[in-house]
Amino acid sequence: MKKERKTETRREFLKVTLGTFMAGFLSSCDLSRFKNPKTMIKSPIRTNILRPPGAVPEEYFAQKCIRCGRCGEVCPYHCIKYFDVKNGGVFSGTPYIDVMEKPCYLCMKCVYVCPTGSLVPCAKEEVRMGVAVINRQVCVTWQQEKTGLMCKTCFNVCPFSGIAIKIDHDFRPYIVEENCTGCGICAYSCIADQYPENNGQKAIRIEPIKWKKIKEIKLEDIKKS
Amino acid sequence: MAKRSFWKRITIWRYAFLTACFLTVVINPFLNYHYDINLVQGWFQSLGVGNLWVVSPLEGIESILTAKFFYMPSLVGMVIPVTLAFLMGRVFCSWMCPIEFLSLLTDKILGLIPKWGSKLKYRKDLIRLSKRALWFTLVAELMVTMMVGYPMFVWWSPPGLVGRETMFYAFYKVITVEVWIVVIVLLLNLLTRRFFCRYLCPLGAVLALIGKRRQLVIKYDAAKCVGCKVCDTRCPMGIKPSVGESQTVYCWNCAECVDACPTDALKFVWRDSGFIRLSPPVKLKED
């Protein structure tokens, strides 16, 4: 009798502990993502979410990267972050830069510590993390007839100002795509979201490099303006 | 049982080394974050000390297999661990791995329980699989990696996750879902000692494979053995040094049996003669 009781309590204890662990595990996972397996292998790189400087093309970045986290540890501004299983699927553990939270200041420390060549050492001006795109409907300087403002913030903060961002005779900024590094400092410091009619929208966003998409955006912008 | 003095026990040095390695991995992210000391970066997937790079062999192989591209710095980084494994076998697993540190810690804590201590510390295996399961895991892991097209072990490797979760906590104040993998591995450890390390760790399999003809082995001297079988109960890997199994691939040179042996029948030996043939212990008894 006594022995039976012991095993029963042990079994119950095991059941309860296992149950709590399973419940904790399941509740900490976002199960809705698992319904669509494509989201697990679809690249989470999108507008304003970019790879660190010197990254090889996105098709084989996650294959080369061994998720050692050294780029994030040497980053002096702590702007490199990492995906986890919830928001990255198999891209979990790969680095990214969210330019809206903290842009890349192009100190080029991370490229020299990457052990697998996912980040290839290169010069500052050769970095192509993405390309800045100006939304002329939102930019306060492009809409200066409406807003009466003349803002040169993006031109001033750009590390390659005058080369990557230029201003025309009305101080309206435009981007020279060939020279833009996509560091995102302009997008980060754009003041257009402070203007009440814009509903917190920034006038500059960084698109990861897909030349087709950028061409489309350019055409649209020209048509609109 | 063992008559060795405290500082002459090899396991003491192993515990010290394990603790030092664990502390390096755990404290380093905080140093990097708060004091910007970048001398040491990363953890055991790729550790950088200054300009010295070490890349874990399995992760390097996976990266090469999926990207189908050789990158010299990563190949050079794999030289040190491969040489270490070639000469000394799975010493990474038993002397450095943070998972081994945590498992050892749980064992030691269980050993502190007054009445049941020694029984829990050297508990019997509840689940036993064939030892060859290790090779199966390695092949399965590499096949899955090749099929999915993305390296798998790089994000679910438990030793790497220990470092990664600490780094995430130090840098972004979050702990991700993957920490459950570490918890599950440690829980499996309660069923069978080092269940994951024995049967499921592909990195251990790679290191064991490299170290098949290792130089550093635990030699069994049948003439000195009194047949007390203490070593069999002490071995965390579930192999039997008392029948000479300590020279097989599955031994990870942790020296638990060497310290437990009351008659010094088990000893560390540096097989300098290179590729020598193993004399089976049965023959030795006949002599």
Question: What is the topological layout?
Answer:
The complex is a heterodimer of chains A (225) and B (287).
Chain A: H1 2-28, H2 31-35, H3 38-41, E1 49-50, H4 61-64, H5 70-74, E2 80-82, H6 85-88, E3 95-98, E4 131-134, H7 144-147, H8 153-157, E5 165-167, E6 173-175, H9 185-189, E7 204-207, H10 211-224
Antiparallel strand pairs in A: 1-3, 2-3, 4-7, 5-6
Chain B: H1 10-35, E1 40-43, E2 46-49, E3 52-55, H2 57-67, H3 72-77, H4 79-88, H5 91-95, H6 98-111, H7 117-121, H8 133-148, H9 153-156, H10 158-172, H11 179-191, H12 195-200, H13 202-210, E4 216-220, H14 230-234, H15 256-260, E5 266-270, H16 281-286
Antiparallel strand pairs in B: 1-2, 2-3, 4-5
Helix pairs in contact in B: 1-10, 6-11, 8-13, 10-11
Note down, in words, how this protein is organized.
The complex is a heterodimer of chains A (225) and B (287). Chain A is of the alpha+beta class. Chain A has ten helices and seven strands. In chain A, the strands form three sheets. Chain A has a three-stranded antiparallel β-sheet. In chain A, a hairpin with a 5-residue loop joins strand 5 and strand 6. Chain A is elongated and about 90 Å long. About 2% of the residues of chain A have low confidence. Chain B has 287 residues and is mainly alpha-helical. Chain B has one domain. In chain B, a hairpin with a 2-residue loop joins strand 2 and strand 3. Chain B is globular. Chain B starts with 9 loop residues before the first helix and ends with a helix. The interface between A and B is large, with 35 and 47 residues.
